[in-house]
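Please supply some protein, with fold tokens.
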Amino acid sequence: MDLLSFDAEPLFFDPPPADEVVQLLEQAAENYGDEQVEADLQRAYHLAPDHLMVLVALFRYYVYQRRFLEAMAISQHARDVIRQSLELPHDWRTLSEAHLVSGGEKSMVRVRCYLLCLKGEAYLYARLGQPEEAIALLEKLIKIDAQDRLGATALLAVVSAGQ
């Protein structure tokens, strides 16, 4: 399965959220560094807690702020939203290429987003001093993504070298 091979389809944040949510996200982007940014992102999250556009924005904010536990919780929530929409297994450890093919029939963009959440979580585990968890996630990604389209091999090398 080639994770870069897919037809044009809606992005993971289509349809867009309500106008108020979009405005809050735009304000947060324009005012990054201001103390109001997190309040804007939290308000957007309150209004659209399962919208991937909001979850990605909040995830990035927490990562850039080095608030890795909060970023992890948001990534796991985003992954659960995607998992439900694609009918993927609850436990990522049981994820197979067959699951991804089936999910890809609904939305390959969401499959990639799900896998990128896993990769992001591996990065966060590494930053949190939990390399074993990071390595387990990355090894799973490498097994599923034999062509290494997501670049998990390079991250695994860095995490393994740091042990």
Summary: Residues 1-6 have pLDDT under 50 and may be disordered. The longest helix spans residues 97-127. Helices lie at 19-30, 36-47, 52-64, 68-86, 97-127, 131-144, 152-161. The chain is about 70% helix and 0% strand.
